[in-house]
Design a protein that fits this description.
Layout (H helix, E strand, L loop, with lengths): L8 H24 L5 E6 L3 H6 L17 E3 L33 E3 L2 E11 L3 E9 L14 E10 L8 E8 L4 E11 L4 E11 L14 E6 L6 E6 L7 E8 L2 E5 L7 E4 L7 E10 L11 E4 L14 E6 L7 E6 L7 E8 L2 E7 L4 E4 L7 E10 L11 E4 L7 E2 L5 E2 L4 E4 L2 E5 L3 E2 L13 E3 L1
Parallel strand pairs: 3-9, 24-26
Antiparallel strand pairs: 1-4, 2-9, 4-7, 5-6, 5-8, 8-9, 10-11, 11-14, 12-13, 12-15, 15-16, 17-18, 18-21, 19-20, 19-22, 22-23, 25-28, 26-27, 27-29
Organism: Paenibacillus chitinolyticus
InterPro entries: CBM5/12, CBM_sf_5/12, Cellulose/chitin-bd_N, FN3_dom, FN3_sf, GlcNAc_Chitin_IntDeg, Ig-like_fold, Ig_E-set
GO molecular function: carbohydrate binding; hydrolase activity, hydrolyzing O-glycosyl compounds; monooxygenase activity
Length: about 450
């Protein structure tokens, strides 16, 4: 094959710029496909988990989602940047604060250790890898690749399988003394992402690893029972080191965790009326040891009172912007209800064309005919099926169909542009410069067939 020589510098710059723009578009597409899997190391307690359990303080938003430490996979060649390893690229910057005394340590010993993951959404998995800091790393410097032995001391090839909602690896941890950090990496198989958890561990000088679980909570009971909720309370557990939190289960499903080890009640909300439930509570400590379950608390929610009151009519219905040849955008003011608005129904004339949630106050009606007049009203409804009166009516006329031209290579297309190819019409999804081989039928990421 004869190599191509770009002797014209202007042409070269144009082609390079076009290529970079296209590459950026593809990168953005890939980046938006975040992994649906989420999880964290519960035992030995990871930095993020101990934040959520209240053992680590001043942690920022990670206390609400320790399962979300996600970044690109491929560590150490790729993945989070140096200085942002603990936060998985900086989304939770407080986790990147690093000193010898900043974080609570879990006591560990070298040799056989089990790492327990709690997985909130399982996903096809490539591997699980575990790294540890070098013996003489600097605990007062930001975590970097230079801090770690970059050969994982434990690596499990998962071959694209899906783990359960609890997953464990038993690994041989290398000999270490003093404060060390373990980095655990869960690599997802079918996305570009991985989950990163660091464990602050004390090897020696702090006694053996804590393997003693708290006692089971006692005297669990339910009170304040309504049609949609109840209060679960219990008596405190004890632990050889200290209880850091309580976990509340509805049957076998974890539904909540207290912010600390001193909270002894939980408000169970969002329950179904006239339904039986069984709740239990478990205590946990900083090392990730869970107690046995408390006594089971079984109760039945009350029957819901009959709701015969309809929501108020939506107000201020209007057309947003200019209608296209195939769509109209609408928005309206919120309705009120004695219990709560469940959703809104959009009518085209007398025909129901769309339903949206009770928190949605705008929508787009698509699939319309060009150069056609339409009239719309909106009604609110509640969970009991009561429907409001009509909103005000609005009319809109769709525009004439846009002119279309045949697809051609070496042409700049912007999102929304229509072209024809082999007798079909396609809409451009992403702005790009076309190339031979990128015909609309061949590149569905760039073109939508109409």
């Amino acid at each position: 094959m004869t190599p191509i020589s770009l002797r014209n510098p202007v042409l070269a710059k144009c082609l390079i710029a076009s290529g970079l723009a296209l590459a950026l578009a593809f990168c953005l597409l890939l980046f938006t496909e975040k992994a649906s899997a989420h999880g964290y190391i519960e035992s030995p307690g990871s930095r993020g988990y101990l934040c959520a359990a209240g053992k680590n303080k001043n942690c920022g938003a990670i206390i609400y989602e320790p399962q979300s430490l996600e970044a690109y996979k491929g560590f150490p060649a790729a993945g989070p940047a140096d200085g942002k390893i603990a936060s998985a690229s900086g989304l939770f910057p407080e986790l990147d604060q690093q000193s010898a005394t900043r974080w609570t340590k879990v006591n560990m010993s070298s040799g056989t250790n089990t790492f327990k993951w709690t997985i909130e959404a399982n996903h096809a998995t490539t591997s699980w890898k575990y790294y540890i800091t070098k013996q003489n790393w600097d605990p007062n410097a930001p975590l970097s690749r230079a801090s770690f032995d970059l050969q994982p001391f434990c690596s499990v090839n998962f071959k694209g399988k899906q783990p359960g909602f609890t997953y464990t690896d038993t690994c041989n941890v290398p000999s270490r003394t003093g404060y060390q950090v373990i980095l655990a990496v869960w690599e997802i198989a079918d996305t570009e992402n991985a989950f990163y958890n660091v464990i602050d561990a004390n090897f020696g000088g702090g006694g053996p690893a804590d393997t003693t679980a708290p006692t089971a909570p006692s005297n669990a009971a339910a009170s304040n029972i309504t049609a949609i909720g109840a209060t679960i309370s219990w008596s405190a557990s004890t632990d050889n080191v200290g209880v850091t939190a309580y976990k509340i289960y509805n049957g076998s499903t974890l539904v909540g965790t207290t912010a600390n080890g001193t909270t002894l009640s939980y408000n169970a909300a969002g329950l179904t009326a006239n339904t039986s439930y069984t709740f239990t509570v478990r205590a946990t400590d900083a090392a990730g040891n869970d107690s046995a379950a408390s006594n089971a608390v079984t109760f039945k929610t009350t029957a819901a009172a009959a709701d015969t009151t309809a929501p108020t009519a939506p107000s201020g219905l209007q057309v947003v912007g200019s209608p296209t040849s195939s769509s109209v955008s609408l928005k309206w003011g919120a309705s009120t209800d004695n219990v709560g608005v469940t959703g809104y129904r959009v009518y085209q004339g007398a025909t129901l064309v769309k339903s949206v949630s009770g928190t949605t106050l705008e929508t787009v009606i698509s699939g319309l005919s060009a150069s056609t007049a339409y009239t719309y009203t909106v009604r609110a409804f509640d969970a009991a099926g009561n429907e409001s009166a009509d909103s005000n009516a609005v009319s809109a006329t769709t525009s004439a169909p846009p002119a279309t031209a045949p697809w051609a290579p070496n042409t700049v297309y912007t999102a929304g542009t229509l072209v024809t190819y082999n007798g079909s019409t396609y809409e451009c999804r992403q702005s790009h410069t076309s190339l031979v081989g990128w015909e609309p039928a061949n590149v569905p990421t760039l073109w939508l067939k109409k």
